[in-house]
Specification:
By secondary structure, the chain is mainly α. It contains eight helices and no strands. α3 packs across α5. It is elongated, with a radius of gyration of 18 Å.
Amino acid sequence: VAALGAELCVGVLDLGDEQREVFRGGEANDGLVGGEADAFVGVSSAQTFPAIVATYSAVLGVFVPSGGSKWIVEAPYVMAAAHELKVHLGWVVAAYDLGEALANLVQPFWMLPILGLFHLRARDVMGYTFVVFLVLVPVVLLLVTILGATLSYPL
């Protein structure tokens, strides 16, 4: 069974050269990476960038729930903008993850197994998770901004 699972994973990850280049942020998508990174740099500063990344991740996570797999596409331009603004790269990843976690409070995909286990419907719990979302949004945005300011750009 393990060998079959490994074979399936290798098959899924067997990308052509062009796709590998896009995911690596290489020549095939330089225009995209540059344009997206410039957009982030244009609307933020080193202090506001982590909050903007968290907000971006939360909004996108509501509409594209991916369990983190969209990061492979977004990382090149988010990290390029972080480099340009001289923001701690590890903190940018943490801010992105916190935004993704906020999105999970307003879309029910993560809770489907739990709902089935306890014979509940999404409407039975969504009110509670939405209240938690409303409380945590300002807390997360404030903390990623304040704590991000304590980290220096190491490169």
